[in-house]
Amino acid sequence: MPTRMVEDDWRPLREMGFDDKACLEVGHIVGLFNYLTRLADGFGLMLDAGTQEASQSGVALQPAEDAAIGRELRERKEVS
């Protein structure tokens, strides 16, 4: 719970070399994720079937063939 965090809660990140700026970035990412999750819950959004299956099976989703990120990842593999 954010209101119960103390400096010692940041120790694992500090031990990995995170400075104040990096810890702030972690806080921003966590805050945005929490915001988006609450927004999705409030609108009653549900996971699509593929994402739901991946979350239950543990098998990572793969980029769609026509997705820009999918093309970029495939091109990187071809160059390697």
Tell me the number of helical segments per DSSP (H or I, 4 or more residues long).
Answer: 4
Task: Please tell me what the overall shape is.
Answer: extended
Q: How would you spell out the order of helices and strands?
A: HHHH
Residue fraction in strands: under 5%
Which structural class do the helices and strands define? mainly alpha
Average per-residue pLDDT, rounded, comes to: 86
Number of strands: 0
Largest sheet: none
Q: How many domains, as an integer? A: 1
The helix fraction, in percent, is: 55-70%
Uncertain stretches of 5 or more adjacent residues: none
Q: Give the termini distance in whole angstroms.
A: 44 Å
Report Rg. Answer: 18 Å
In short:
The chain has 80 residues and is mostly helical. The chain is 62% helix and 0% strand.
Describe the fold and architecture.
- This protein has about 80 residues and is mainly α.
- The chain has one domain (about 1-80).
- Helices cover about 60% and strands about 0% of the residues.
- It contains four helices and no strands.
- The protein has helices at about 10-15, 20-45, 50-55, 70-80.
- The radius of gyration is 18 Å and the shape is extended.
